[in-house]
Amino acid sequence: MAKKVLVSGGAGYIGSHVTVELISAGYDVVVADNMSNCDMTCFEGVKKITGKDDIPFYQIDCCDFASVNRLFTEHEIDAVIHFAAFKAVGESVAEPIKYYRNNLVSFLNILEVAKSHGGCNVLFSSSATVYGEADILPVTEQTPRLPATSPYGNTKQMCEDILRDVVKATTGSENVINGIALRYFNPIGAHPSALIGELPRGVPNNLVPFITQTAIGKRECLSIFGNDYPTEDGTCLRDYIDVVDLAKAHVAAVSRMIDGKMKNGYEVFNVGTGRPVSVYELVRAFERVNGIELNYKFVDRRPGDVVAIWAETTLANNELGWKAERTVEETLASAWAWERNLSLLQK
Ligand code: WQD
Question: CB of 305 closer than 6 A to ligand 1?
Answer without folding.
Answer: yes
